[in-house]
From TrEMBL:
Keywords: Signal. InterPro entries: AB_hydrolase_fold, Peptidase_S10. It comes from Novosphingobium pituita. Residues 1-23 form the signal peptide. This is S10 family peptidase. It comes from the Bacteria. Pfam families: Peptidase_S10. SUPFAM superfamilies: alpha/beta-Hydrolases (SSF53474).
Length: 556
């Protein structure tokens, strides 16, 4: 779920650029070439007439109207489903158009510079002055994920109903008015990443052009600037809301927009954050000697054992006081034991295994065999192994039948299997029936990445790093350059993918002056990675986010 790259090149937008007139014979031949490319990939463009001699895509939008009731107040809104076109950073528009105009491009359509058609759904409250109305750009992560999850599960005006911690039955699914839509606080723009949803990429080296940390940031950066221009929203209070990989994207993106484009933002909401990939508990054994990932994940493992009643002894009545106890243990005795490595005395090793077993319900013998270190896949496989069940990664409240009882690690995520169909089916029906967005292209919940470029240029521009991604410096730089920038960190206690304690640790270790720590606020919920999958947590997340936007949108 992660990745990064450099931005030496900037992505340029051509949503409103007119095409040059071409000689009719050359235009016909070149379009025939484009048609051949399009036929080879029928999902390659959202519009069957999009490709031309100069471009693979054209911008489009469809408008509809609706009403949603939030907090007892009816909100009339305009919905806009559409696509904006962005290009890779080294796009030379003039040279390519000249080549096309002379007819020399007709044999080279496949070698045209890469571009992306980025699909979005936007909602605008009717009757609200655009200059005063906050606008929030929302995106999921992946990388390469569409944004149906935040759209149809959290803050769009319509919401799909899924089971709280069990598998949602197959269609028909219930789609209801969303009483927790964020439209009461802000206009909303849900954006699909290049290659995901109905966003598409085309052209020479298209994967390399858009699938990477910095390439991805620049695509979103150019999309946002184009959207602000096209909708007259440059003077609106502006917010980013990213989930999962969307949190490193948001951190690097807000820094790029502010530092490179002089576009200050009012706030950033980080949901289920991971900014430093050295802290990921997915496979920390690949980075031996760096033990913090095990420390960060332990409170969530304990929360999972608490939820499934796997703790030894009497189960604490309340979750949060129990988690505070585990956090203290994790950062003191457990961290000190891990730091000793092979020099930890056997008696202390056994004692530590016993204590870990008490907090997690996983046997002391297994902790010992695993050298007191378990990655997420092991936790999923072994926490309920005596029941033949695998625990969810994205939301550990979920369980499902174990695929292979003899495996070391889990073979799937029961949470993803439990609700993905509901989101995909509901959005496809909603987009076509309510938004009237017509297309034969497949809506892709994930882009199907072939690779993801992990290189990332540090915000001071001194060097490019290709190791585990860490955008803490990007967020810190954005906060130092805009001392009014506010951050809301939100998360779920049952998230094994991006443990809540990891996000708090990252905020506490941001390289910013102590005074700027006051710009960070926190909201945690008894839910998983998608905190909105639990309705009570969705309400809490809405209330915290709406209050955050309201508090940071006031004119000065």
């Amino acid at each position: 779920m992660r990745s990064a790259l450099s931005l030496a090149a900037a992505v340029s937008l051509l949503a409103l650029t007119p095409t040059l007139a071409l000689a009719k014979s050359d235009d016909t031949d070149a379009n025939a070439k484009a048609e051949a490319i399009r036929n080879a990939d029928p999902d390659g463009v959202p519009d069957p007439d999009s490709a031309t001699t100069t471009h693979f895509f054209k911008p489009r939008k469809v408008e509809t109207s609706g009403t949603v009731t939030v907090g007892g107040h009816a909100i009339a809104y305009t919905a806009e489903a559409g696509a904006l076109v962005v290009h890779q950073s080294d796009w030379d528009d003039t040279a390519w158009r000249e080549k096309a105009a002379t007819g020399k491009a007709k044999d080279d359509v496949k070698d045209a510079p890469a571009e992306a058609s980025m699909f979005y759904t936007a909602y605008f409250k009717k009757g609200a002055p655009a200059t005063d109305r906050p606008i929030t750009f929302l995106f999921n992560g992946g990388p390469g994920s569409a944004t149906i999850w935040l759209h149809m599960g959290a803050f769009g005006p319509r919401r799909v109903i899924t089971s709280n911690d069990t598998h949602t039955p197959p269609a028909p699914y219930r789609l209801v008015d969303n009483a927790y839509s964020l439209l009461d606080a802000s206009d909303l723009v849900f954006i699909d990443a290049p290659g995901a949803g109905w966003s598409r990429i085309a052209g020479k080296d298209k994967d390399k052009a858009f699938w990477g940390v910095d390439q991805d940031v620049h695509a979103f950066r150019e999309f946002i600037k184009a959207f602000l221009s096209g909708h007259g929203r440059w003077n609106s209070p502006k917010f980013l809301l990213g989930e999962s990989y969307g949190t490193p994207r948001a951190s690097a993106l807000v820094n790029a927009l502010q530092s490179d484009d002089s576009v200050d933002f009012n706030g950033v909401v980080l949901l289920s954050a991971i900014l430093n990939f050295d802290l990921s508990a997915d496979a920390p054994e690949r980075n031996p000697g760096v033990d913090n990932a095990y420390v960060m994940s332990l409170p969530t493992v304990a929360a999972t054992a608490w939820y499934h009643n796997r703790l030894s002894g009497t189960r604490p009545a309340e979750l949060e006081p129990f988690l505070h106890e585990v956090e203290h243990f994790a950062t003191t005795d457990y961290a000190m034991a891990l730091m000793q490595g092979s020099t930890l005395p056997d008696a202390q090793r056994q004692e530590m295994a016993n204590r870990l077993a008490g907090y997690t319900g996983i046997s002391a013998a297994y902790w010992l065999r695993s050298n007191l270190r378990l990655n997420v896949g092991q936790v999923m496989q072994h926490l309920q192994e005596d029941q033949g069940l695998t625990v969810g990664r994205i939301d550990s409240r979920f369980s499902g039948p174990t695929l292979d009882p003899t495996a070391k690690e889990a073979g799937y995520d029961p949470q993803g299997a439990a609700m993905s169909s509901a989101y995909v089916s509901a959005f496809n029906a909603y987009a076509r029936d309510s938004l009237h967005y017509t297309t034969q292209a497949t809506y892709k919940p994930f882009a199907g990445l072939t690779e993801w470029d992990m290189e990332h240029r540090l915000p001071d521009g001194t060097r490019t790093e290709s190791g585990p991604l860490n955008v803490m410096p990007d967020l810190a730089n954005a906060m130092k350059q805009n001392t009014q920038l506010k951050i809301l960190l939100a998360g779920g206690y049952f998230d094994l993918a991006t443990p809540y304690f990891e996000g708090r640790y990252e905020m506490n270790h941001l390289p910013v002056p102590a005074s700027l720590q006051a710009n960070i606020s926190y909201a945690y919920f008894p839910s998983g990675h998608m905190v909105y999958a639990n309705e009570a947590s969705l309400k809490g997340f809405h209330d915290a986010t709406a209050a955050f936007i309201a508090a940071n949108s006031k004119a000065h």
